[in-house]
Amino acid sequence: MKLLVMETKLHLRDWPTLLFTIGLPVGLLIVLGFSIPGFTEQQEGGQRIVDTHMPSTMALLSLLTLSCSVLPAVLATYRQQGVLRRMSTTPVHPARVLGAQLLINLAVGTVSTIVLIVAGRLAFGAAPPRQWAWFVLVFLLGTAALLAIGLVIAALAPSAKSAPGIGSMVMFPLMFLGGVWVPREVMPDALRVISDFSVAGPFAQALKDTWAGQPPQLLHLVVVAAGLAVFGGLAVRWFRWE
């Protein structure tokens, strides 16, 4: 708990990154919602884009930023500066640093998503996720899978400076496959199949489904769980403490 408190204080000191992670998705939701009239008009089924698609997509954006940019940069810096190596000589195992970072990033992602829900409600009258139980399950499972990808990036990054660059090379394709730039509904069939078997695509669709009041598709849950198992295993196998 002391380590968690210390790491939290260090994380809060980097307030520009924290503000960017939480503020960018909320800002995009509000700006795009007010500037594009079609986003607030009812679509087929009575849903608006600001009700389901935009908040779920912005939540994915926030979680991808944490997983592919923030987490790898912090861990790669700790390794390069010898923090993990020095801690390995104490009773505090370096794995606890890893666990603290995972919990902190999960907490930041949760706060960002809650702020998105509140902002959507206040700005557009958007309803919160209608399938709360499924939403929480999908959120935790998908966030864990994305953080596992971040751990793999941190393991492969040769230096602290290279970690953000490698993370960006992973994050932007995942953003595309997750429908951040092009909605999955209008993707060509072949591209949608690729999206369905990425971690970001099924995660984004499952968030959107639970937000709209529908249970997630079994295929999407299986793909996200498989991604957690695969990337979590690779992170454990490849991670270097020094």
From TrEMBL:
Lineage, highest ranks first: Bacteria, Bacillati, Actinomycetota, Actinomycetes, Streptosporangiales
Q: Does the keyword Coiled coil apply?
A: no
Listed name of the protein: Transport permease protein
Q: Outline the extent of the ABC transmembrane type-2 domain.
A: 16-242
Q: Which UniProt keywords apply?
A: Antibiotic resistance, Cell membrane, Membrane, Transmembrane, Transmembrane helix, Transport
- Subcellular location field: Cell membrane; Membrane
PROSITE patterns the record matches:
ABC_TM2 (PS51012)
The record's comment on protein family reads:
Belongs to the ABC-2 integral membrane protein family.
Instruction: Give the transmembrane ranges.
Output: 12-36, 56-76, 97-120, 132-156, 163-182, 218-239
Q: How does it sit in the membrane?
A: Multi-pass membrane protein
Q: Which domain of life is it from?
A: Bacteria
